[in-house]
Amino acid sequence: MSYAKPVISDGRPVFSAQRRGDLRSPAARMRVSPLPLFLPLKTEFFNAFAAGEKSVEYRRYGARWNEQTCVPGRRVTLSCGYGTMRRLSGVITEFEVRALSEVAVAQHLYAPPCEIACIHIKVAHG
Fold first, then answer.
1. Using CA atoms, how far apart are residues 6 and 84, in angstroms rounded to an integer?
2. Domain range annotation of the chain
3. Dist CA 72 CA 120 (whole Å)
């Protein structure tokens, strides 16, 4: 059984967001009401965020960690691993991309050449 895609009068396919009447781009929709960004962390890094000793998370720049997904103002859920017991909430305050050679703490984690996404996070304590 095949299903025909609904089409707009000019022949373009209609996507689910358009069916709901939201014709903005995916990036524009995300800026308006994004879901929290989920960041699973090793225990040592989670504890550093919880203690206020860490405020920047480093990830390899790419499809998952970029300007579109790490928008300043977006909420963040920091998780100790992938479990649900230890979580922190926060907000992205700044995002920047740096060369691996500029980020000493990330050099032992990633192989060159690559760029590093520096995600600045303000954790909500209390």
1. 40
2. 35-123
3. 9
pLDDT of residue 27: 53
Per-residue model confidence (pLDDT) at position 122: 97
Cα atoms found within 13 Å of the Cα of residue 11, Cβ hemisphere only: 0
35-123 has which CATH code? 2.30.130.30
Q: How far apart are CA 124 and CA 121, in angstroms?
A: 10
Q: Determine the pLDDT at residue 28.
A: 55
**Quick one: tokens of 1?**
């059984």
Under 8 Å between Cβ of 119 and 69: no
Query: Does a cis peptide bond (omega within 30 degrees of 0) precede residue 113?
Result: yes
